[in-house]
Structures are given as C-alpha cells and as structure tokens.
Design goal:
The chain has helices at about 5-15, 55-65, 90-100, 120-125; strands spanning about 30-35, 40-45, 75-80, 105-110, 115-120. The chain is of the alpha+beta class. The structure holds tetrahydrodeoxyuridine. Tetrahydrodeoxyuridine (THU) binds near residues 89 and 92.
C-alpha cells in the first residue's frame, strides 16, 4: 500500500471520528477501509440511549463499503485517542474477517500518528470465515 493511500485512509477515519456520536462513553472512534476498487469508506461510532444498540466505527465503515458494492477490504485503519493504541473490538475483527484476509493490514492511529500496525491474522488468529461454510447449501 502506498503512502498516499494510507494518508487518505487516515484522513477519512479522522474526519469520520469528528462526527462520532458518543455521548455515553465520550470515546470517539473513526475507522476507514479501502476496498478492491481503491475506494475509501469511513465510519464513526454511534451510541444509543439503549446502550447495546450502538455501533462501532469499523462496523459503520464496512456498512458504507458494502452498501456501495465493495466486497473486499485491502486495508483498514481505526483512529482513537487513548493511552494504548485503539484496536478493533472482537466483533469488528470478525466483521472485518468477512471481507479481508489474514495478511490485510489493520493500523491503529490517533490524531497525530500511527500508533500500531497489525495484520488481521494477528488480531484474529485461526479465525472462522466464509471458507468454513459450504458454498452451495442447497
Ligand atoms: N468503539 C469503536 O467504535 N471501535 C473500536 O475499535 C473500539 C470501541 C466504540 C464503541 C463505543 O461507542 C465506544 O467506542 C466505547 O467502547
């Protein structure tokens, strides 16, 4: 992945984070994914007064990609501000897994810099994925 693409992803995730709806946790997150057509889709977390109904930034970014016809994630970034680098929650790792491979890069950044670089396989080893299911259930 070239530097320009990472810069686009980071900028999109940071811009989305600025729109996070996080009045309960006060923890704003932005995420962005790069699809197989080179398009960038971003999302922010959106919490809900009925707490479990909130969604994560990564989920929002994936939903935007799928809604636009994207089917593969070639890279992902998550942006949050915390003492430790912000990484995708377990559920979002699995959602990323649906569209990404073990070697897909997933970077964690804050507003200034990249804090940590992972592959999806490092974040979700020995994962369950589409390859486990029969292609023709009929
Ligand atoms: N959150 C995300 O959106 N993505 C992550 O990677 C970690 C957690 C959100 C969920 C919730 O709105 C807030 O951050 C605090 O957990």
């Amino acid at each position: 992945m070239d530097d320009t693409t990472w810069t686009r992803l980071l900028a999109a995730a940071r811009a989305a984070r600025a729109h996070a709806h996080a009045p309960y946790s006060r923890f704003a997150v932005g995420a962005a994914v790069l699809d197989e057509q080179g398009r960038v889709f971003a999302g922010a977390n959106a919490e809900n007064a009925a707490y479990p109904q909130g969604w994560c930034a990564e989920t929002a970014a994936l939903a935007a990609m799928v809604s636009a016809g994207g089917r593969r994630v070639h890279a992902a970034v998550v942006v949050g501000v915390a003492a430790d680098p912000v990484t995708p929650c377990g559920g979002c790792r699995q959602r990323l897994r649906e569209f990404a491979a073990d070697d897909t890069p997933v970077w964690s950044a804050d507003l200034q810099q990249v804090r940590a670089r992972f592959t999806l396989g490092q974040l979700l080893p020995a994962s369950f994925g589409p390859q486990h299911l029969p292609r023709d259930p009929g």
